[in-house]
Amino acid sequence: MPKRLFTATPTKLLNFADCKRKYRYTYLESPRPPKGPPWAHNTVGAIVHEVLADFFGRWPAARRTPDEVVAKMRSSWRSEGFRDERQSLDWRERSTEMVLGYLRDSDPYYEPRGVERTVGFTTERASLRGRIDRIDERPARDGSGGTELAIVDYKTGRRPLTATDARSSLAMALYVLGARRVLHRPCTRVELHHLPTNTVAAADHDDESLARHQKRAESMADDAAAAEARWAEGLTPAEADAAFPPEPSALCGWCDFAKICPQGRREAPTREPWAGLDEPSPVPLDEAG
Ligand code: SF4
């Protein structure tokens, strides 16, 4: 029998690396323990992603106007996680300005190669997949006259981003490998489009950097697969706590399960749901919106 591959997204692997208890609560417990309230900064990120996906992926060129963007931001807006109506409306306007600024110089006729495109690839040990915000197809920079792909990820968090962030992102590297596999085009370029500053943090991968990221992903997948196999055997509560221990860190203040995790609450104060609007969270880039 061929060996069954462990299937994972970069977020799932990084959750396992962050904290085994959080992983167990997120992916294994059934029913899943109740999460805390939604985060306002995640609401902002989700709405911005939805509007940009419509703009580049679903709207014809004639519809790609500032008025349509404003109307879409308003109709898509949700107040989940905000302190009150006033804060929500304030952020609706700020977010709308942010999206308009980002789109100001975009060509309305531009058609990306993919929008919210799911890609994946398999190694000898794992099946790795993920959904890419946008895949651009551009003239190849090697003078061949062909085209190459660029992986674009939208970021709405407070922290400005650098080329090192783009290069060190596990998710972006795996997206490169997945896009190559699915779309059969050359691809080395990864770009983090940071909307709050309207800047792009870009990097190019080579075979060595991609191999390094893939090796890291496979190692994480091996560890997660072994832990899940133990879970499937049926663990007592004490055995489950030992196999999936809490791993307190600065991330606990932003963890959805902090309310039911005494060790996490001791480690970091629980944030208000709107804290991430003004405070850069330490949530790793690959897990943040
Ligand atoms: S609060 Fe911290 S230790 Fe507890 S589950 Fe969340 S990340 Fe893990």
TrEMBL record:
Taxonomic source organism: Kribbella solani
Keyword tRNA processing attached: no
Domain PD-(D/E)XK endonuclease-like: 8-262
Record keywords: ATP-binding, DNA damage, DNA repair, Exonuclease, Helicase, Hydrolase, Nuclease, Nucleotide-binding
Location of the region described as Disordered in the Swiss-Prot/TrEMBL record: 203-225, 266-289
InterPro entries named in the record: PDDEXK-like_dom_sf (IPR011604), PDDEXK_AddAB-type (IPR038726)
Feature: compositional bias, Basic and acidic residues: 208-219
UniProt-recorded name of the protein: RecB family exonuclease
Gene Ontology BP, a term: DNA repair
One GO molecular-function entry: exonuclease activity
Residues in coiled coil: none
